Amino acid sequence: MIEYSSQLLQNAVNELARLPGIGNKTALRLALHLLQEDGSRTEALSRALLKMKNDILLCKKCHNISDNEICTICSNPRRDENILCVVEDMRDVMAIERTACFTGLYHVLGGVINPVEGISPNDLNITSLIDRLEKNEIQEVILALPATIEGDTTNFYIYRKLKDNKAKITTISKGVAIGDALEYADEITLGRSILNRTTFEIKR
Predict the structure, then answer these.
(1) Is the pTM of this model over 0.85?
(2) Which one is the CATH code of 77-199: 3.40.1360.10, 3.40.50.300, 3.40.50.1370, 3.30.70.120?
(3) Is 146:182 a contact under the CB 8 Å cutoff?
(4) How many CB atoms lie within 10 A of CB 28?
(5) Alpha helices in the chain (DSSP H)
(6) 170, 197 in Cβ contact below 8 A?
(7) What are 171's strand-pairing partners?
(8) Can you tell me the distance from the alpha carbon of 169 to that of 114, in angstroms, rounded to the nearest whole number?
């Protein structure tokens, strides 16, 4: 482990290196950049991060991140309220939005069923999903969860809960590779997977 002449710099590097995808070299480069920046720029960054952490909300309808009680996607009158896309987390919403291929609404589960990590259906936003379908005339539910064992398990659980509802249940096509998270799929592949979605079927 490299030792720096300043413990304050060391502390900053250590904290930056905790961020995903940031190694010690990148953390050091970022820390030195901030050190050399005008103080007002660093303070502005600090304030923005603290305000995001303290003030950001979860949309009461879809559970996506929002500045208000209802997010800009749910409150957009141009979105198709008859189609609901179920995703694992907010990063998947961002990934699908980048494709510009989906104009419906979302429902963020907040994870997938994973007994190994102690995540059960009760830990996810599944009850509110069922409630949305009971209270709204949803025509189609798209299951856009990761192509993993946990994602498939969650798909199956949701299908069992919704199969008696009138809504059509579909899933994105397998353009997304097995084991891949949606956020890592390129926009063209993900967009085609949304457009070429198929009816959800239980493999026997």
Answers:
(1) no
(2) 3.40.1360.10
(3) yes
(4) 18
(5) 7-16, 24-36, 39-55, 90-99, 127-135, 149-162, 187-195
(6) yes
(7) 143, 198
(8) 22
Q: Which sequence spans correspond to the domains of the chain?
A: 7-55, 77-199
Give residue for tokens 């050091």.
Answer: 28
CATH architecture of the domain with range 7-55: Orthogonal Bundle (1.10)
Which residues are registered as beta bridge partners of 83?
A: 140
What would the two tokens of residue 154 be? 């969650």
The torsion angles phi and psi of 18, rounded to 5 degrees, stand at -75, -15
Q: Are 108 and 121 in contact (CB under 8 A)?
A: no
154-176 residue pLDDT tens: 999 999 999 888 899 999 876 55
Span 89-139, pLDDT tens digits:
999 999 999 988 899 999 999 999 999 999 999 999 999 999 999 999 999
Distance from C-alpha of 128 to C-alpha of 178, rounded to nearest angstrom: 28
